[in-house]
Amino acid sequence: NKDQIPGLADLAPGNEGVIDFTIKVAPAGEIDPAKNYQIKSFARFSVGTSTSATSTEDADKSNLIVSKINSDLNLKEEVRYFDDDNIAVGSGPVPPKVGEATSYKIYWKLTNNLNELNELKIETVLPKNVTWDNKNHADVGTVQYDDSTRKVTWTVGRLPITVLKAQAEFNLAIKPTEEDRNKILVLLSGTTIDAIDSSTLAHITKTGKSKTTKLEDDEAISDDGRVQ
């Protein structure tokens, strides 16, 4: 009412007003993919102090607004030298050494649990001192490297809601120079995930953090990643 929103004290025919509010939706872990999640909103209003005896239940009800929820799309990115079984998936010295090549395994893990996605792709541009190691695999879609743009692209395209998880992997390599000594080198400068939600038609875009030779994702590595 006008005590909470002064603009409602007088609303003439044809005038507009705005009421801002927020609501909480269920956490991703509680989502049931079999259900159709959406938010239905409407407003009820009263004019004056009396109620007409001929009014119906919906006479004081606004139009219904249906708001759909974007899919919960996420990308987990890991740079590893050892896998979860402590088996080497990289090669060369760790920490990296001047004049010697070191290879790392990059894991991209997709999760999606609400709506089907279209035009889904993941991209990253390699820093100038990082080279493509040409060892790649993907559960769905294809992983390709463009030497002219230095761009790695995982093209998935359509991701049905029945596919809750997908993974791709590839190898990168570095060969530090004397200028790199005692430095922590950037391996990935920020990976971007991009898709169209088939239900809401929203454009979903997210960008991850940079990854370095510190190998924060590899629990078997304890050094700081500085080039020796």
Secondary-structure-based class equals mainly beta
* Percent in helix: under 10%
Cα end-to-end separation = 69 Å
Rg measurement, Å: 26 Å
* Mean pLDDT across all amino acids: 89
- SSE pattern, N- to C-terminal: EEEEEEEEEEEEE
The strand line-up of the biggest sheet is 7-8-5-11-12
Q: Main β-sheet, in a few words?
A: 5 strands, antiparallel
Ranges where pLDDT stays below 50 over 5 or more residues in a row are none
The share of residues in extended strands comes to 35-45%
> What gross morphology would you assign?
elongated
Counted beta strands: 13
Q: Number of DSSP helices?
A: 0
Structure overview:
This protein has no helices and 13 strands. With 228 residues, the chain is mainly β.
Describe the SSE topology.
Layout: E1 38-41, E2 65-68, E3 74-80, E4 102-111, E5 117-125, E6 130-138, E7 142-146, E8 151-159, E9 165-174, E10 186-188, E11 192-197, E12 203-207, E13 211-212
What is the gist of this entry?
With 228 residues, the chain is mostly beta strands. It has strands at 38-41, 65-68, 74-80, 102-111, 117-125, 130-138, 142-146, 151-159, 165-174, 186-188, 192-197, 203-207, 211-212.
